[in-house]
Amino acid sequence: MFGTIIENVAFNPSSRRLDLNDAVITENTRAAYPLSYIPNALEESMGGHPKNIIMLTCDAFGVLPPIARLTPEQAMYHFISGYTAKVAGTEAGVKEPSATFSTCFGAPFMVWHPYRYAQLLADKMKEHKSDCWLVNTGWSGGGYGVGKRMSIKYTRALLNAAIDGSLGKGSFMTDPVFGFQVPTTCPGVPSEVLTPRNTWPDKDAYDAKAQHLAKLFTDNFKEYSEKVPDAVRSAGPRSAVAVK
Questions:
Q1: C-alpha dihedral over 88, 91, 93, 98, to 10 degrees?
Q2: Which of 51, 59, 103, 44 has the alpha carbon at shortest distance from 210?
Q3: What pLDDT digit, counting tens, does each position of 171-195 carry?
């Protein structure tokens, strides 16, 4: 059994060995190794059920909070939406970030209607009492070109607090546009960072950009709305509630 597969790894003919440090083919190198090389690996290759589920996004508009807690219905909505941004270095020709939606965060690999996968996710969340968090590593204090990328230090602090359970026990506020729950405090993270609007010098500009992003979600979700229950449609941005 192998931990991963060989892909895009350079081969040195003179030594007849794989060179994992060679970036000629790609910097995104992969290699294969026996599962037995991992000290704490399980032979069954199966772990337990997660208590926390993390959906990762990169919001180039600087609108989404660094972390938000989702209800099962909101998790379904955001899973189906698959919102993130293409950023420089992740795709050829991308010079600056642009919003993109990839169904279930992996549209090319989805065989069935995305609602089936989202329903499975929600069922597992309810069965195993798992929390779902939307984590944004994008921009804060403004969009691309104005704000700054979210601090890795803050992201780590939020993830650690979510995983150890302390974040879920704290206080939350409801985002007025997106409707999800946003923590108001977290050790190691300035409170203003948790509420994106507070990091923008121009609050009106933030409000306008938030509505713009909400409309992008709404327009994208129209493709799936006919086969999705009202509870899931209503779990999106507030401007999306009326969409049928």
A1: -60
A2: 59
A3: 999 999 999 999 999 999 999 999 9
